[in-house]
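Let us practice reading a record.
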Amino acid sequence: MELGLIGLGRMGAGMARRLLRNGHRVVVNNRSSDPIKALEAEGAVGAYSVEDLVGALAAPRAVWIMLPAGDVTEQMIETLVPLLTPGDTIIDGGNTNFHDDIRRAEMLKAHSIHYLDQGTSGGIWGLEKGFCLMVGGDAEVVRRLEPAFTTLAPENGYAHVGPVGAGHFVKMVHNGIEYGMMQAYAEGFEILRAKSDFNLNLHQIAGVWNHGSVVRSWLLELTEEAFRQDPDLSSLRGYVDDSGEGRWTIQAAIDLDVPAPVITLSLFERFHSRQPESFAAKVLAAMRKGFGGHAVKKAE
């Protein structure tokens, strides 16, 4: 099949290459031209404007958007609407909030344009290993585009999970779970490292846990490789960003009256990592000194 793909970052470019390698016709567009030229050399059709991309596709068109969530994606959809025709489909494969998906689908319905939300996991490894895809939208539209979904995903790595919004909702919770798993691994390895009299080899331990252990996982494989390259992680600063899905997962838990303490605390730990010094810790120290006369450390 043929499709257009807008946004050739790490995920978008990987998706384009995986589609090309499996015989699809892919028309690509990006804000800067170098990624377009690189993919043209690999068989893609380059489009140096959104208008050119739409013009290079036969109706009914399928246009994938692989852009950051929020205003950038919103503006791109606004740009596409007057260029597309009834029966065309927009697929948002970024990390959009599912509430935005529902709103957009309703807006596009007035133009007879279909909308699918594609939760996408796989990162920079998706090109070789495949992208895990969680798709929301009308079943008939999803079926029409399944040749692309099944190409992008590994075996059993694609599912139509429900109506519009469901794809990104499932991906949101997936990322919330990921936050909790990562935090548990991080805390465990810090405990191991703190037991200095055992002189534990963290790379060795991560490796053995990946063979038969109940905590084995791809995240642990990545951790093992990180320790192999830099045993003390001395090249890294302990600053951890978040891209929004953890916050949205916690808000959904609140809205649905579902307790989610592990995911919530894992997000707050990321906030903690961004503080050069915790004011809350200073308040705790002041209280301990006040009620118990406990020793405190003076600021330098």
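A brief commentary: The beta strands are 2-6, 25-29, 45-46, 62-65, 89-92, 114-121, 132-136, 158-162.
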